Amino acid sequence: MKTVILCGGLGTRLSEETQIKPKPMVTVGSHPMLWHIMNIYGAHGFSEFVLALGYKGEVIKEYFLNYYSLDSDLTIDLKSGEVRHLRQCQRDWKIDLIDTGVESLTGGRLHRLEPILKNGGTFMLTYGDGVADVDINALLAFHRAHGKLATVTAVRPPARFGGMVFDGDRVAEFLEKPQTGEGWINGGYFVFEPGIFDYLSGDKTILEGHPLESLARDGQLMAFKHSGFWQCMDTVRDRQLLEELWQGESAPWKKW
């Protein structure tokens, strides 16, 4: 089963990093965010990826073109130019790197992938900037059980600031960055049937707009509620949080 990862956005709120690289290539623990996301799926047995490229897509292509050598020990004979890999790459991923346009929006990128996904049955999709400890196999089982066209993973985002519970003017309880009580949001980690393509049209389609709204109205969108860890990387502060978790060896998304 193929997993689509949207990798083409500009990442303007991370401009300190994304002036020279696409957002999914911003590193956490010396590895690109994209590598972390692919490992989440890989840990659950999913190894076929379709990367929807756009802004600075050549950076992602160069990374994977060189990945085998960079992930291996080498012996190099400078006289002959011979290179021997002393150990095999540990990832058995198959990756399609597809240019979906610099200006395309989220639904537009998926629309451009229709020729390679339309006849392949169920597929998964997520954004290139969010990690979670989602049980991908449980997500897929949920999707198959309800029989609808689409499943979105619903998450409760971490609050930006500490919360307080009052008794009059007295602080009865202080909660350090609790989960918000404001409801569930789109956390990515979708599962789709090919029928999703009937809801897409053109590069300027925003997946989170008309397509998902229409699916919901048609009773074809179900939510897999994930109450565990989820964190996107929208800002420098988000990246620093993820880096601290990784360096502290307490990264909840690391299941490999």
Please describe what this structure looks like.
The protein is an alpha/beta fold. It has a single domain (2-156, 184-247), classed as Alpha-Beta Complex (Spore Coat Polysaccharide Biosynthesis Protein SpsA, Chain A), CATH 3.90.550.10. The chain is 27% helix and 26% strand. It contains nine helices and 16 strands. The protein has helices spanning 15-18, 33-43, 57-65, 67-70, 106-112, 114-117, 136-146, 210-217, 236-247, and strands at residues 2-7, 27-28, 31-32, 48-53, 74-76, 83-85, 94-99, 123-127, 130-132, 150-155, 163-167, 170-175, 185-186, 190-192, 221-226, 230-232. The longest helix is centred in the last third of the chain and has 12 residues, at 236-247. The protein is globular and about 65 Å long. The relative contact order is 0.19.
Main beta sheet, described? 8 strands, mixed
CATH class: Alpha Beta
Annotated CATH architecture: Alpha-Beta Complex
Number of strands: 16
- SSE order: EHEEHEHHEEEHHEEHEEEEEHEEH
Please report the number of helical segments. 9
The CATH topology is given as Spore Coat Polysaccharide Biosynthesis Protein SpsA, Chain A
Structural class: alpha/beta
Determine the N-to-C terminus distance: 19 Å
